[in-house]
Amino acid sequence: MLNKPTGCLMKNSILCVLLWIGLTSAAIINVPTDQATIQEGINAAVSGDTVLVANGTYYESINYQGKAITVASHYAVDGDTLHILNTTIDGSQLTDEDRSSVVYFESGEDTTSVLMGLTITGGKGSKTGGTVFGKKINGGGILCKNSSARIVHNIIRNNSAIGKQESGGGGLYASAAKPSEHFLILEHNQFLRNGAESAQNDAAGGGVWTDINSRVLHNTFIENSSMSETGSYGAAVAGGGYANEQCLFSFCHNRIEGNACTTNRQDGISFGAVITMFDSNVFQENVFLANKNLGSSYARAAALTVFKADSST
User: Fold this and answer.
1) Residue 77, SS3?
2) Is the N-terminal amide bond of 179 cis, ω within 30° of 0?
3) C-alpha 178: how far from its chain's center?
4) In this structure, how many other beta carbons lie within 10 angstroms of the beta carbon of residue 300?
5) Which residues contact 268 (CB under 8 A, 6 or more apart)?
6) d(Cα 74, Cα 80) in Å, to the nearest integer?
7) CA distances in angstroms from 41 to 49, 64, 71, 256, 293, listed in the order given
8) Using 50, 70 and 90 to split pLDDT, how confident is the model at 296?
9) Could you tell me if 186 and 208 are in contact, meaning their C-beta atoms sit under 8 angstroms apart?
10) Positive or negative, the Cα torsion across 119, 197, 301, 1?
């Protein structure tokens, strides 16, 4: 059953959006009143504008196109969390197997590009590489590539990234050629039942894979999964320079419950609900409950695994 956002949803974020709307000359583009779809609203927007989305289900994919805009439900106006549950971008009808993420940040956006108060579901990810043996599929719900973003007060649920080669970020994937130049803010989101899966290689970050500077605060990760033949990592989150150079990674006040790493070969590897590469990253006051490593003879901590620069713990 879908969890209703709780009182931890931060009023400061609402106030910030209200200030942007009320104290600037930026436009508010209402969907579907002014523009029929969310993407059409983004197309019409310029930096500083808000695309304000009415309750409903929108079967589409959206791309921020490098614009410093806010895309938000009416939660941004009145703080009613029912808007988050009832305003959905659904990617289940997307048909391009190489481009089936629901939300794209891929044109150099920064943290003035904001996604707020929406449910993101049905995404199947995008091709980010591969070989003759198969594709890498990443970012089922949200793909953030060589860009930054601010993603707050959303529900990201039932998205997947499934490929033959290394795949990850069922809910969200953030990566960059120069990770230290980009920053991801994830606050007060729910990541529910997202999955990363690889048929021939590793899978990581069933909920979130982030290789860029990241602040991950007050989120909930429930029943996300990573599954592969060889190695499964970070069923909920793989972050903090997981596959690139060391990044700033702050992971605090999150709830991580019922996530599972599964490796289908007994000689495979399974590493925890949350995995990070450097012990200099910040972890404070997180709650881990009933996370699992399954199907592998070589499994590390089901909750948290931290790799140092020159060794592992």
Assistant:
1) helix
2) no
3) 19
4) 20
5) 228, 229, 230, 231, 232, 295, 296, 298
6) 8
7) 10, 10, 9, 35, 43
8) low
9) yes
10) positive
Quote the tokens at residue 59. Answer: 């079967």
CA 71 → CA 37, 87, 211, distances in Å? Answer: 12, 12, 24
- In whole angstroms, what is the distance from residue 38 CA to residue 89 CA? 9
DSSP state of 179: G
HSE-CB at 271 with a 13 A cutoff on CA atoms is 22
3-state secondary structure of 38: helix
The token pair that represents 140 in the structure block: 């089922």
Query: Three-state SS for 50?
Result: strand
Give residue 79's region: left, alpha or beta (phi > 0; psi -120 to 50). Answer: left
Whole-angstrom Cα distance, residue 14 to residue 79?
A: 7
Contact 139, 173 (CB under 8 A): yes
Residue 163 has phi, psi (to 5 degrees) of -145, 170
Measuring CA to CA, which residue among 211, 218, 216, 256 is closest to residue 236?
A: 256
- Asked whether the whole model's pTM tops 0.90, one would answer no
At 242 the three-state DSSP class reads coil
- pLDDT at position 159, please? 98
Higher pLDDT: 66 or 11? It is 66
Average pLDDT over residues 86-108: 97
| pLDDT 10s digits, 163-209 | 887 889 999 999 988 888 899 999 999 999 999 998 878 888 999 99
- Which neighbouring-strand residues pair with 126? 99, 138
In this predicted structure, what is the pLDDT of residue 120? 98
Instruction: Name the residue among 311, 309, 310 with its Cα closest to residue 300.
Output: 311
Strand partners, 293: 261
C-alpha–C-alpha distance, residues 34 and 253, integer Å: 39
Beta bridge partners of 50: 28, 70
- Supply 130's token pair: 């591969």
Closest CA to 88 of 2, 160, 184, 213: 2
